Amino acid sequence: MSHPLYIAFIWHQHQPLYKSPGSGVSLSPSQQYRLPWVRLHGTKDYLDLVLLLEQYPKLHQTVNLVPSLILQLEDYIAGTAFDPYLAASLTPDEQLTYQQREFIIQHFFDANHHTLIDPHPRYAELYQQRQEKGQAWCLANWELPDYGDLLAWHNLAWIDPLFWDDPEIAAWLKQGRNFTLSDRQRIYSKQREILSRIIPQHRKMQEAGQLEVTTTPYTHPILPLLADTNSGRVAVPNMTLPKQRFQWAEDIPRHLRKAWDFYKDRFGQIPRGLWPSEQSVSPAILPDIINQGFKWICSDEAVLGWTLKHLFHRDGAGNVQQPELLYRPYRLQTAEGDLSIVFRDHRLSDLIGFTYSAMPAKQAAADLVGHLQAIAKMQRDSQSEQPWLVTIALDGENCWEFYPQDGKPFLEALYQSLSDEPRLKLVTVSEFLEEFPATATIPGGQLHSGSWVDGSFTTWIGDPAKNRAWDYLTEARIMLASHPEATEENNPEAWEALYAAEGSDWFWWFGAGHSSNQDAIFDRLFREHLFGIYKALNEPVPPYLKQPVENHQAQGNHTPQGFIHPVIDGRGDEQDWDKAGRIEIGGARGTMHNSSVIQRLWYGVDHLNFYLRLDFKSGAAPGQDLPAELNLLWFYPEKTMVNSPVPLADVPDAAPLNYLFHHLLEVNLLTQSIQFREAGDNYQWHPRFSRAQVAINSCLELAVPWADLQVPPDYPLRLILVLADEGRFSNYLPENALIPIEVP
User: Fold this and answer.
1) Measured between alpha carbons, how far is 7 from 374 in angstroms, rounded to an integer?
2) Residue 518: strand, helix, or coil
3) pLDDT confidence of residue 189
4) Which ranges constitute the DSSP H helices of 109-218?
5) End-to-end CA distance of the chain
6) What whole-number distance in Å separates Cα of residue 541 and Cα of residue 531?
7) How many CB atoms are located within 10 Å of the residue 513 CB?
8) Residues facing 649 on adjacent strands
9) CA–CA gap between residue 630 and residue 614 (Å, rounded)
10) pLDDT for residue 617
């Protein structure tokens, strides 16, 4: 018999512990929680996801709820959690201090403005004032109603559109301005009301069989690194490790047991699945997971690839070749017993997480369903006796901020299509494993040690700042071990502080790779948790913990930190480009130093396009201060193909200008017109069609579709920009280098 294609969606819901240790003892209520994201994501992302799913009863899914998230939700529901954003929101306008007003202007626009601010005219008006006139102007000129409205809108905008038909919420949205303290108190009550429904709704849908709820080690630690920080060298043999080796495998069963007991108490049954934090696995952690009673875990296709010593290639449409290796569960065999494991399709998960938000909802949903139908056809063509399981697993909260209406139109279109397609069947992971137990086996010792990020741990260890944080944690752990009398029963404060400090999120934000408006707060929270260990043991706090782990000044040059989806309008929206790579041109050495009209170059990608932005000196104009022609030339290292030289007069015979290139996009900066060409035989260039977009206003922004370049996924490209005037070489950038690009 032919099986339908089984699909397991797993949504991962997580927030680190923003709660400062000692909260409620010596700290004022407004200091208790450092950041508001549990409360705001709670009103926007956790309840609506499952309420939408409930409307499509044929579709079954899995949701992972991290214990540290649930703990904090419960504090907010009880009214005992306060964060600085909430404290400001509940302060009478006339009592706001100067410091609070500064804080409000700086932080109450911390949201994607396209989706959460722009749709609300009053919120957008205040945002534009801050962007165009600056924070100092707002501080000098705003009156009390401006602050009152901003405080209200910051909270209102994070309420999910699914709840906008609530009469009170609808009235606030219609009101728009002149919000009072009483209004803001009622908005806060509405937030708590929504938060209070999250866990009961998950429990109800799990009992009805439509949902499986899984858990994660207690505070979301990277278990393989708790077992041994040297496991970082499995994927990166030359990794620079912390000065001290962290080896506290005994903490692993503690995190697992706490998560297990916590889950049993909230959901009235035992968990079956475990989402290892950051999908991080290693042979060392399997015995504890099995001994605790978990039946299955989830990881990433990169980990499977390393384990099988198989590189997963994709065809031009992005679909996996040799899909039968990825789309099946495996049984990990150990001396303690067996454990099932599923591996997610990295690209399909990333399309939802990073790309579909930039597409019309129905088109995005059709694209995903089209990929699944293509996989279903491959399954039928393979005539496999074994059913296939496609696992799509991703962060279930952060991506929706970039979707119109918090992803509601996309999810509705997707769920309707999946309900109507008989050959695609959505299941929970446990449902599938009960009916079709894993037959393929992997010896536990063969499992690769890595995470969802490139199959390595470089996001959490190996960088100087990350390693410094590990050394601080090691010292604190040794101190706790030197107090055998301090047990979890008689000194819970010390152990809770340790568990919090072992969480993965602090290491994520330290060092290169990730940055946010709150880096300094994450640094402080990590050190506060370590403080908590020493204070609970009545030991002196080491002086180094009173200094930041790293300097949080703005970076200069850096590589891309994630996918971007800029609106191509020539305005250089700061949020659109915040994860882009950046190269400083104006301050660089050599011919284009401070006199350069081009100050900065930004670049980045998503699954649809390559993006480029050039920032000009204030008042600079193409054709006057700036040559009128910009040429983008793509070079493909180590690839055999027809190439041609730069087709301009007076090009210097020096690298990289004397390289041969394969694609050329010419942009006329005066008319904003483009011509796309491809190299041909005998050093010729042939015209090709292009859907590239260009816009010039305060800066230049450009989007070049991958379809123009016709390159497969995971392909390395190099790019150079050459400025010209009437076909004659003028200058090039970046100097003495090529821009490195990886096709997603």
Assistant:
1) 13
2) coil
3) 98
4) 121-133, 135-141, 144-156, 167-175, 181-196, 198-208
5) 37
6) 6
7) 17
8) 728
9) 11
10) 77
CB atoms inside a 10 Å sphere around CB 366: 16
**E-assigned strand segments in 26-119:** 61-65
* Cα gap 513→278, rounded to integer Å: 15
Structure tokens at 346: 């990295």
Q: How far is CA 637 from CA 299, 715, 719, 732, 738, in A?
A: 32, 10, 11, 19, 11
Copy the structure tokens of residue 215: 């858990």
Nearest to 359 by CA among 414, 426, 417, 439: 414
Q: Give the integer Cα–Cα distance in Å for 194 and 188.
A: 10
d(CA 335, CA 263): 27
What type of residue is 102? E
Q: In the structure encoding, which two tokens stand for residue 421, read together?
A: 């397609």
Burial class (CB in 10 A: 0-12, 13-18, 19+), 530: buried
CA distance 491 to 483: 10
The string over 636-647, giving b where at least 16 C-beta atoms fall within 10 Å of a residue's C-beta and e elsewhere, is beeeeeebbebb
SS3 176: coil
Question: How many whole angstroms separate alpha carbon 72 and alpha carbon 78?
Answer: 10
Main-chain phi, psi angles of 505, to 5 degrees: -65, -35
Q: Note whether 684 and 719 are within 8 A (CB).
A: no
Taking a C-beta distance cutoff of 8 angstroms, is the pair 603, 355 a contact?
no
How crowded is residue 275: how many other Cβ atoms within 10 Å of its Cβ? 25
Name the 3-class secondary structure at 225.
helix
Task: Say if residues 520 and 479 touch (Cβ distance below 8 Å).
Answer: no
- The CA distance from 284 to 294, in Å, is 16
* Bridge partners for 609 per DSSP: 705
Along the chain (744 residues), what's the average pLDDT of each consecutive run of 10 residues? Answer: 92 94 44 90 98 98 98 95 95 96 96 95 97 94 98 98 97 97 98 98 98 98 98 96 98 98 97 98 98 98 97 89 97 97 97 93 98 96 93 96 96 98 97 97 98 94 96 98 97 96 96 78 95 96 95 75 91 89 63 60 92 83 83 83 90 88 92 93 93 91 91 82 90 82 80
Token output for 491:
């000194």
Q: What is the DSSP string of 624-690?
A: TTB-SEEEEEEE-TT-----B---SBT--SSTTTTS-BSEEEEEETTTTEEEEEEEEGGGEEEEE--
Q: Tokens 């948790």 appear where? A: 529
Number of neighbouring beta carbons within 10 Å of residue 434: 12
Q: How confident is the model at residue 415, as a pLDDT?
A: 98
Residue among 671, 637, 670, 661 at smallest CA distance from 722 = 661
CA 327/CA 700 separation, integer angstroms: 43
Q: What is the pLDDT of residue 28?
A: 40
Instruction: Count Cα atoms within 13 angstroms, Cβ side, for 204.
Output: 10
What's the token pair of residue 497? Answer: 């502080």
Report which DSSP code applies to 27.
Answer: S
Asked if the bond preceding 712 is cis, omega within 30° of 0, the reply is no
Residues 604 and 565: their CA atoms lie apart, in Å, by 9
Q: Which amino acid is at 676?
A: F
Instruction: Provide the β-strand partners of residue 611.
Output: 604, 703
